[in-house]
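Figure 2 data, in text form.
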Amino acid sequence: PRLQNAELGKRAPRWIRDNEVTMCMKCKEPFNALTRRRHHCRACGHVVCWKCSDYKAHLEYDGNKLNKVCKDCYHVIIGCTDSEEKKRKGILEIESAEVSGNSVICSFLQYMEKSKPWQKAWCVIPKQEALVLYMYGAPQDVKALATIPLLGYTVDDTPKSADLPHSFKLTQSKSVHSFAADNEELKQKWLKVIHLAVKGETPECQNELQVN
């Protein structure tokens, strides 16, 4: 769980591990080997790039020593608000941890678009938007790589390749999205939710039907 603003600097945070993110958790720039090294904010534990960790604040839990913190924590700790930060977040800027914790389903899936190579993606269908599939690079990323509004897609669950036996495909006119799960059980869990979503239904509606 994230530290509340009032606790920032008073308690040591849980550090997000480097391999849990592919981009700075503040400015969302992708990390790369050369220019964007990963740094940890000593107040909230988030992984940030050097630009976003270029602030220092006195942290109570560390004997009031000056520590590297991110811009957001810096403003909270020194008590100034940044009105610009309140700008409405775009659709992709829903934090993965936020939606994964309140999702209909979430897991890693292999993903392929058109003829690009397969890549691993953290996929989430959030409860508040049960008809949209969000794709992240890693479970703690703060911005989605892509979203697929599932309504109206056709589901094809016959695997095309022997290498990925647990694959399925979503097609709608010219757009084709291929996914592959690690096992058949996981594939079926996803298909159960997706079959409903493409018809504009959510798993909750189905449960109500079963109860009545």
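Caption note: Residues 166 and 186 are 9 Å apart (CA to CA).
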